[in-house]
Design goal:
Elements lengths: L1 H17 L4 H38 L7 H7 L48 H16 L4 H9 L8 H10 L4 H15 L4 H9 L8 H10 L3
């Protein structure tokens, strides 16, 4: 705008001089125009310097740093990143079962003790066994009665040890022996139940135990 005003003033001054108007007014107008032109040049130079300084400042300024939060706020399509600060909850119903530690089997203990050696049967014991078998073939005996028969002086005269070994080695069923003895008594004579039980278990009789005597009497039907 200043340059336009200066040009108009110069034109008017030139026209006035051409028409030979008042020289004083022409000189004033010409001076104003020159002054306006100088001011305009100074203003343009100042504006250009300011613009150049602004461009230089913009070129040297560091680039703006956009934070992740600002970027996320500016772009609605970007999902914000959520950092988990708590540990996940474990559901005890879906948690894997606890594994028990392996059980160590106890060591196998091997028995190194040898079984006792079988006792050698003496000649006397062998003979006592044969005598006991012979007695059982023709009569019934209790354990006590058969041992006494084998070891007594009126019987076979074996030692008590040999007679006992012989009887026990045969594994005799003395319940059946009591039954045979009860049957023999009833074949020879009549007995009440009580009397026959007493005869079978008494020391003067057969020498069976009470339970053996009762078994024998029950089996004969008395």
């Amino acid at each position: 705008m200043g340059s336009t005003f200066g040009l108009v003033a110069i034109i008017l001054s030139a026209i006035a001089l051409a028409k030979i108007v008042n020289k004083a007014k022409s000189a004033i107008g010409l001076g104003l125009g020159v002054l306006a032109l100088i001011i305009n040049v100074i203003v343009i130079a100042a504006l250009g310097s300011a613009a150049a300084s602004g461009v230089k400042a913009a070129a040297t300024a560091p680039p703006a740093i956009v934070s992740a939060t600002t970027f996320a706020a500016a772009d609605p399509t970007t999902e914000p990143t959520i950092t988990a600060t708590t540990e996940p909850t474990v559901d005890p119903t879906t948690a894997p079962p606890a594994v028990a530690p392996p059980t160590t089997a106890p060591p196998v203990v091997k028995h190194t003790t040898k079984p006792p050696a079988t006792k050698a049967v003496s000649v006397e014991e062998q003979n006592a066994i044969r005598s006991a078998q012979s007695y059982l073939e023709f009569s019934a005996f209790s354990r006590k009665g058969l041992i006494e028969q084998l070891s007594s002086d009126a019987g076979e005269g074996y030692s008590l040890k040999a007679a006992t070994y012989a009887v026990d080695s045969l594994h005799i069923n003395f319940n059946e022996q009591a039954y045979k003895s009860a049957k023999s008594y009833l074949e020879m004579s009549g007995f009440s139940r009580k009397e026959l039980i007493e005869q079978l278990e008494s020391d003067a009789g057969e020498g069976f135990t009470h339970s053996q005597a009762v078994y024998g009497v029950n089996k004969v039907g008395l």
